[in-house]
Amino acid sequence: MCGIFGYAGRDNAAERIINGLKRLEYRGYDSWGVAIADLDSEQINLVKHTGKIGEVSSEKLFDTTSTIGIGHTRWATHGGVTDTNAHPHYSTDKSFVLAQNGIVENYQELKSELISKGYEFISQTDTEVIVRLVEEELKTAQDLHEAVRQAFLKLTGRNTIIVLEKKNSHIIAVRNGSPLVIGIGNEEIIIASDTLSFADRTNKVILVENYQMVEYKNGETKLFDVKENAELKTEIIELDQADTKVEKEGFDHFMIKEIVEQRYTINEAVQYTLDELNPLLGRIKEKSSKGGQGKVYTVGAGTAGFAAMQIAFFLRKHANVNATELKAYEMESYKNLFTPEDTLIAVSQSGETADTIEAIEFAKEKGTKIASIVNMLGSTITRISDYKYFSRSGAEICVASTKAFTAQTAWGLLLALSLIGKYEEAKKVVKDLSQNLESFFEGNDFSNIKNLAKKLKDQEHFFVLGKGQNFVASLEGALKIKEITYKHFEGFAAGELKHGVIALIDQGTPVFGIISNDENKADMLSALAEVKARGGFTIGVAKENNELFDFFIETIEGHEADSIANIIPFQLISYFMALQLGNSPDKPRNLAKSVTVK
Ligand code: AGP
């Protein structure tokens, strides 16, 4: 979703900002803009375009080598994808420019007030309302700092802004909701949406909290509490650089690189000692098992929501814990049910998903303790959690999440089995799966999956059936394929088939069945038999072939982690089918990696 990147230092700012925006590309965007303050002429030069930054070079954009500026990648919310709506936006007198991440929820009323005061609007964005509001505040405020502060306090919704003034070597950024971090480099400062964007420059970071303002002026950086208007102390933390690599490393796309990386990332996710797990294990044991009344909820959205479902499944199935999965964006009916005895486990790759953060806030208000399994270091969800765990998968750049899902669910399996004293067994199960994946990927040309992708690419409707441990895999498998093939893939519990879904099965309709050698195998085979009897094209995703399968995909042995292993064929099908269809696997249409607005 939108990305902010501000730079002040010794280097050519345009070059640094373009590089930073490219490193933010993975979040998803449809237009971009760069504004550079030429301090000699006291002018701001602004370039904004729709589409991708591509190979744009700073020299072609600007004839200045200024060392201060800001940039933005926009994922349209209010107003179409046009050059005019792209950020940053100039103030009327061009004395400053402003960009925003988020949504100004009260923009309509603010806009009407400003129009009645004579302000004119050039774009259709909610962001331009903030620009005009700052202009209005400047009429009475003593300086830009105060005008921005006053304007910011009038906004509702989750929004983070960055402002560049044409003089004073001056950048102001304020956070509420959408992420903001400061990178402290060698005689340079970067104010950005995430630490990945400047990981090539520095690992020294200041985390900005909601309602905090960063002000860089004439070489000095200060942090303020916006509501109190008080200066705050800053704390610089050092992040682990190994977690921030963003290279394709010889692969054609980030997606296939990240799929193949699962041979070791799932194992990384379970490298927690019992001492490190014990605070959460103790809490769950005390409050939610052994007669405790506390519930365990798991929560997330999209793929992370499915990981949350799988973690709840593991907790119920293996540890007899009363665990319920919640969708972050459907929390209303649960709001009043949370108690201080409950534990909410939040699952997120980015740690910045607005829906998930809001769900955590609801639970926190009721005194519920928050645990989280997040991939991005220093992210918001981690900071607001009582029990913090990282999935340690390294940067996941492809919009479609793969390695984060398998890492988070592997961690969930570790948690569930550790609750019943099977910590070592859990680690062995994941390690074995990791080794099986190593052999699976070794020299594999994926010809079977490529053939299937080729065979099915012109179909429009597909179904995926799963049961028990493989139910979530059917949902996540279908989501993965939808996201990058743009085909209608639907995951169902196999049990649902006879209750309605079977009406959709026609001659040749492709139906996948995910089958482990477990107590549900017979039911799964019956479901595929019923599909086949109605002319459907059955694809068995299983350990061994069966006469009921029209096509067979052999799965990787995972034992208790079968549900994790079984997602990998679907990741591969989605990748190879997207290539067949000429789609971009890394940047699917309409999607953003980090969904920081509701
Ligand atoms: C995954 O493929 C998706 N792009 C999306 O569903 C994602 O999982 C969801 O938006 C949640 O993101 P998070 O893990 O960063 O919280």
Characterise the protein shown here.
With 598 residues, the protein is of the alpha/beta class. It has 3 domains: 3-238, Aminohydrolase, N-terminal nucleophile (Ntn) domain (Glutamine Phosphoribosylpyrophosphate, subunit 1, domain 1), CATH 3.60.20.10; 255-443, Rossmann fold, CATH 3.40.50.10490; 445-584, 3-Layer(aba) Sandwich (Rossmann fold). It contains 17 helices and 25 strands. The strands form 4 sheets. It has an 8-stranded antiparallel beta sheet, covered by helices on one side. The chain has a 7-stranded antiparallel beta sheet with strand order 5-6-7-8-12-13-14, with helices on one face. Helix 10 (380-383) links the parallel strand 19 (369-374) and strand 20 (387-390). The longest helix has 19 residues, at 423-441. The N and C termini lie close together (11 Å). The mean pLDDT is 93. The structure holds 2-deoxy-2-amino glucitol-6-phosphate. 2-deoxy-2-amino glucitol-6-phosphate binds at residues 300-304, 348-350, 353, 356, 399-401, 483, 591, 594-595.
Quick synopsis:
With 598 residues, this protein is α/β, with parallel strands linked by helices. Helix content is 34%, strand content 23%. The chain is built from 17 helices and 25 strands.
